[in-house]
Amino acid sequence: MTRGQPHEGLRERKRVATRSAIERAALALILEHGFDHVTVDMICEAAMVSQRTFFNYFGSKEGVILDAMPPFPGEEAVATFVHATGTDVLEDFLELVFGSMASAGPDPELTRVRRLVFQRNPVLAAGLLDRMREREDRAVAILLDRFAAEGRTSTRAGELEDEAHMIVGLTMAVFHYLMRKQLEGRVDADRRRTIIHEAVMLMRRAVGTV
Amino acid sequence: MTRGQPHEGLRERKRVATRSAIERAALALILEHGFDHVTVDMICEAAMVSQRTFFNYFGSKEGVILDAMPPFPGEEAVATFVHATGTDVLEDFLELVFGSMASAGPDPELTRVRRLVFQRNPVLAAGLLDRMREREDRAVAILLDRFAAEGRTSTRAGELEDEAHMIVGLTMAVFHYLMRKQLEGRVDADRRRTIIHEAVMLMRRAVGTV
DNA sequence: TATATCATTGCAGTATCTGCACCGACTGCT
DNA sequence: AGCAGTCGGTGCAGATACTGCAATGATATA
Q: Percentage of residues in chain A with pLDDT exceeding 90?
């Protein structure tokens, strides 16, 4: 527990502790019984917290799993993506999205358990796609920034927007594909790059651009 | 489709009448107030039916809209797809899926209203994607049949399965893209073909840029 | 007509989620 | 230390989606 700030307030520390307690209790119960055989009340009892508190932290039951998996990372990673040149936009974008999910949350152990839960509950993986869809505008904006940084200009109105939307859809397709292929253990950056590249190659073949 | 038989039983006729009443009431209310501002009780009152009856016909609130939109059509259309040759597999598959949705249900007016509802409620369009995901195994089986009919053999174990899964994912991507582009009025087969082709072209560009 | 089937219903109950008001612990300032 | 304001946690009432069960009455069938 190397606390960067020596004091960040007792109130804030308690907050973090409460959230963490709920998350740990939820993940343990879900791992044991499966998502739909666990009720919010069960989680609250295990976490020694009222149901109302649970919903104060997580807007929904799914939120316990999904909230810690943001589809987009911080400003610096986005900036790196936007100003990268000479590499494939689609692959870079996939790397950006999957990289953010791989490093979700401060506790790597929780992230590992979460991935286990996703493997056993496909319905939750679908929830991740929903989150991504909800943030599509943000994704499109990022992609348009990249296009601009590359000096691309549209010959037709909305042309670049269309391409950005399509890339978002393709990202969801790859995500869906990799989820199906289980994508277990390893998450180091090199292997992730390889997996993404293979998926893109398969996509090219399926699309007929070989 | 039941106009041919003069008698198919009073019980059956009442059944379809009840289902139709619920569907019409639901669509009208949802068009007016939006999906999440309509409760099941409201629909039941308008359809003069108990809530229990509603859930006897439709497993869920979303089912009122989604049940009539099967992601795959009947045997004959599937057979046509499987044995088609010389055309692009992806485009044919897209045509198969979208064609089935365009001709959903016996009442074309209801189908038209349903499409309106989908445009105004993106969350319901996401529901369609979920249905498609639930039937992914069926979709993959169809695609493998097509591959077999084309005489394709896999050099590596699971190669064709991977490609089939990827095509399903790409289909979802195109569906997602077209939903975003609104895809209003026209549904005649020719225009649908054109729209699909354009989407695939855009996809090729997004996937092939270096 | 007698019997079986089945659509429909009411009812009780469970589960997710929300708005509201209260309490009490923390926090910042004096 | 004391005081006032903030805010996390809680209980409660209620809305809403959905399920199992048993009863009832209309329809089908023998």
A: 67
C-alpha to C-alpha distance for B30 and B37, rounded to whole angstroms: 8
B chain contacts of residue A144, beta-carbon cutoff 8 Å: none
Which residues on chain A are in Cβ contact (under 8 Å) with B133?
126, 176
Helix then strand count (H, E) for chain A reads 11, 0
Which CA distances in Å does A168 have to A143, A184, B206?
9, 23, 10
In contact, B168 and B139? CB cutoff 8 Å = yes
The answer to whether B152 contacts chain A (CB < 8 Å) is no
The dihedral formed by the CA atoms of A132, A137, A143 and A149, expressed in degrees to the nearest 10: -150
Convert the pLDDT of each residue in B110-140 to its tens digit.
Answer: 888 898 899 888 889 999 999 999 999 999 9
Tokens of B111: 């189908």
Determine the Cα–Cα distance for residues A159 and B97; give it in Å rounded to an integer: 26
Token look-up 């099967």 returns B70
Please measure the distance between the N-terminal and C-terminal CA atoms of chain B and give it in whole angstroms: 52
Question: Whole-angstrom Cα distance, residue B40 to residue B50?
Answer: 10
- pLDDT tens sequence across B159-187: 999 999 999 999 999 999 988 886 655 56
Helix (H, G, I), strand (E, B) or coil at B157: coil
Q: Does A172 touch chain B (CB under 8 A)?
A: yes
* C-beta atoms of B166 and A206 within 8 A: yes
The alpha helices in B48-107, defined as continuous H runs, are 51-57, 63-66, 75-83, 89-102
Nucleotide nearest the Cα atom of B47 (by C1'): C8
Q: Give yes or no for residue B2 having a pLDDT over 80.
A: no
CA A9 to the chain's CA centroid: 29
Asked whether the beta carbons of residue B173 and residue A170 sit closer than 8 angstroms, the reply is yes
Contacts of A166 in chain B (CB under 8 A): 173, 177, 199, 202-203, 206
